[in-house]
Input
Amino acid sequence: MSKVIENVEEFKALVARIEAKEGYRRPLGFGIAKVDRGQLNPDLILQANFPVVNWNENFGSAAIFIEALNQSDVAVDFQASEFVANINKKFIKFAYKAFNPFIDEANGDAHKNVQVINVLRWMRKDIDLSDYKIVLIFEDDKPQSVESVYLKLYALSTGKAALRSLNLNGAFGVLPNVAWSGREAIELAWLRENEIELKLLGGYPTIDSVDKFPRFLSHVIPADNTRILDSSKVRMGAQLAAGTTVMPGASYINFNAGSLGAVMVEGRISSSAVVGKGSDVGGGASILGVLSGTNGNPVSIGENTLLGANSVTGIPLGDGCIVDAGISILEGTKIAIMPEQLAKIKAVNPDFVAKESDQIQFFKGLDLAELHGVHFRQNSTNGMIMASRSQREIVLNSELH
Output
């Protein structure tokens, strides 16, 4: 395309023509990334940095990027679950002409994909474009490339995709193990090969961690009222709702896990665990992940729920629950409930089925999963784990009950 697109109507017409081509598919997610390569092996992608992530949105920009690849003699494979390609000057030139109607108003939160092309245009003479790639995901299949893993991690951490909604199977096998120095990714093989020279010259880097995943704060800017007091405590791919506070010490939030509202985190939220707003994960408390004894069933914690210090839960909890400090509630844990307390628990859990009895009854932890208003405690005399009606507020969803 040699013509500059002059107005919005021409832009929409161009997008329509592109999308009408035989075999065209709208991508589920897409973005342009700068990749960091191995210092020893430049074919090894260590990480991918996406300034803008698109997920189920901005399909007009996707069409322009796909046509820009076509104009650069790169044929997009629409049958693949994902497609990764280098961009070049032809790509940037085509996209800039197509985005012309939006160039002047592209700033702040407006037209971020246009901003990316605008910045690349004035940078293009000073950068190596081989380090810039466009990533297109057409199906939420298991990722095949480092770039697609990062696009999905970004989609989760920016809240573009819901927790536990994306296929990350095999991600550990795709990502290389990397030495992280600040946000710089260093190839381990390069460190080993240059260890003697680096140390004798006083240039050996400070290594903060060795991991396949970077830190959340190395890639994501959190909401203004979100606090992370130690950057090592949150892994990339975690999702933190506004108002969440992550304290130092025993706290930790893994990838594909996080909060749905303002939450206090002083304990561990394992992979695939989700915590509802107003809840408190006490110091050293642990929410087990799908590889930690939950039989592959991800754990969700409801709203206004308290996990006491050093407690453990391996079952989903509803709203307004309490797990006392130092106790573990697992799927097979034997839990006793007195008759009067069972009646109170049933009153706020209309769907909970338990036989009527004037005797103490025993349940497995899994039997009480997802119930609201349950207080789990340990009898200090006989050591028995018991459940009673908690005193925390419960607000039931009227559409469900």
